[in-house]
Specification:
Elements (H helix, E strand, L loop, with lengths): L2 H6 L1 H8 L11 E4 L24 E18 L9 E20 L8 E6 L10 H13 L2 E5 L3 H10 L1 H4 L10 H14 L11 E7 L1 H17 L4 E5 L28 E6 H4 L12 E6 L7 H14 L19 H16 L13 E2 L3 E2 L14 H4 L3 E4 L11 H4 L1 E4 L2 H7 L3 H18 L4 H13 L6
Parallel strand pairs: 4-5, 4-6, 6-7, 7-8, 8-9
Antiparallel strand pairs: 1-2, 2-3, 3-5, 10-11, 12-13
Helix pairs in contact: 2-7, 3-10, 14-15
């Protein structure tokens, strides 16, 4: 729904979703961070990792300052997500940073802004959704905004580069919900952030612990402020984050069905064991479970390792590794398609296609084929013409907790490949057939289809 139309509903929504008095959402102030401030680049940014200039893009960083409310739960928060809250404290000052990646030529801007609640599970901002879908954003002309919404991320910025981030201060995670809302308000209020253009659609996204906070955001905050035109919850569990202090909120939380803006839930295999109890597909909630994928994967890890080597945020910049090869399934293809559909949906277009859930026993055990690949779910061509077994978890490694989320890829033996594909032409034909199915179903975009098919044609399968 367009912003103007949503504002007409603000007064009635306040009485429905909030008990007590809520203040109108105010735009924060934004100040450009000089490119050469501190060490000379944004922490967790693109410098030395992605060549934005070659793609006609530029990365800019801003300090965002304002005053935020904190909230508290009112009544019982039941699993249907129809939650009430009220303002607990107001006028809390904060200063954070936002990273803006926009076309150098403003005329290329599509009108769509994707704002990511940066993940701080490992003590530093990680732009997970940008790392998966930056190619889609850039080729589509979208603008990306990374938001440091939580205290852990803000504190790490100051420790890594005090010369650049000395003014950054988030006193508590309880401010995070208003900070994320105000980031959307800043995007709308200050066209200079977008190269002088106005946004048509602002989408909010977040992965893992950020998705848990966005679950609470969707159910308790979005109905009030309606700051976002659509939300992407990537890699969520059944539970939600607290609205106030603490580590855990509601233990079981579907997305409320009376929202006026769409919500897309995008899950990997690692996630479905922890979220099968809250599966849902409704008029404005869509869930995709992508078979063969892990909570995080090699594609994203390659970008993170490069940024970490530069920033030295974890393990003094050492690359993250695990006992076994990390999952290399092409989750990014499904995420690109999901963002494409969410953008269209938020603009009033058709809802995304549905996808079968991953096949499970008792909601706890994933059912697998003889090669140990999952059955059911959204199926990408790399899984429907497999050359490896793809699992959702790994072990060991040098970053505690990371490898359990990174998954594994175990290549098939040469004999197994020859059983499946007697010759290369057979492999390519089967791959193209699978790619056509995914393309026609809406799970694969044309640029990713072309990349995937070219990869299959160049692959040494079966081994020569």
């Amino acid at each position: 729904m367009r912003r103007a139309a949503r504002l007409v509903l603000a007064v009635s929504l306040l009485s429905v979703a909030v008990v007590g008095t809520a203040e109108a959402l105010a735009a924060p102030t934004v100040t450009a961070v000089p490119a050469n401030a501190g060490k000379g680049w944004p922490v967790s940014g693109a410098k030395g990792v992605i060549d934005l200039a070659a793609r006609g893009y530029v990365e800019e960083e801003y300090l965002m300052s304002g005053r935020a409310n904190t909230y508290e739960q009112v009544g019982s928060w039941t699993s249907d997500g129809k939650w009430n809250m009220r303002v607990a404290t107001s006028d809390n000052p904060y200063t954070t940073r936002i990273v803006v990646v926009r076309p150098t030529d403003p005329a290329r801007f599509s009108g769509t802004v994707v704002a990511e609640w940066l993940n701080v599970s490992f003590g530093v901002d990680i732009p997970v959704d940008f790392s998966q879908s930056y190619q889609h954003f850039l080729r589509s002309g979208h603008i990306y905004v990374g938001v440091t919404a939580q205290k852990g991320g803000a504190d790490k910025l100051k420790s890594l580069d005090p010369g650049r981030y000395g003014a950054v201060n988030i006193s508590a995670d309880t401010l995070s919900y208003d900070i994320f809302s105000q980031a959307a308000e800043a995007v709308r209020a200050y066209p200079r952030l977008l190269g002088g253009r106005a946004a048509d659609v602002v989408l909010g996204t977040g992965h893992s612990q950020s998705a848990l906070r966005l679950t609470t955001y969707a159910n308790a905050v979005q109905p009030v402020h309606e700051a976002y035109d659509g939300l992407m919850l990537h890699g969520r569990a059944a539970l939600a984050a607290p609205i106030g202090d603490g580590l855990i909120g509601a233990l079981s939380a579907k997305i409320r069905t009376d929202l006026r803006d769409p919500v897309f839930i995008l899950q990997a295999e690692t996630d479905v064991v922890f979220s099968s109890s809250v599966r849902q597909d409704t008029a404005l909630v869509r869930t995709w479970e992508v078979a063969g994928t892990a909570h995080a994967d090699q594609y994203g890890l390659d970008l993170y390792n490069a940024a970490n080597a530069r920033d030295k945020a974890i393990n003094d910049g050492a690359a993250t590794y695990c006992d076994k090869p990390v999952n290399s399934m092409t989750f990014r293809y499904a995420e690109n398609a999901a963002f494409h559909h969410l953008d269209r949906w938020a603009r009033g277009g058709a809802a995304p296609p549905t996808a079968s859930p991953i096949t499970m026993l008792l909601g706890l055990i994933i059912v697998r084929d003889a090669d140990q690949n999952a059955l059911g779910g959204l199926r990408l061509p790399d899984l429907d013409t497999p050359i490896a077994a793809h699992a959702p978890n790994n072990s060991g490694g040098n970053v505690p907790g990371a490898c359990g989320l990174l998954g594994t890829t175990t290549p098939f033996t040469p004999d197994r490949l020859r059983q499946l594909y007697p010759d290369h032409a057979t492999y390519v034909a089967k791959f193209v057939e699978a790619a056509n199915r995914a393309l026609n179903a809406g799970y694969l975009l044309r640029p990713d289809y072309d990349e995937a098919v070219a990869r299959a044609r160049a692959a040494n399968v079966p081994p020569s």
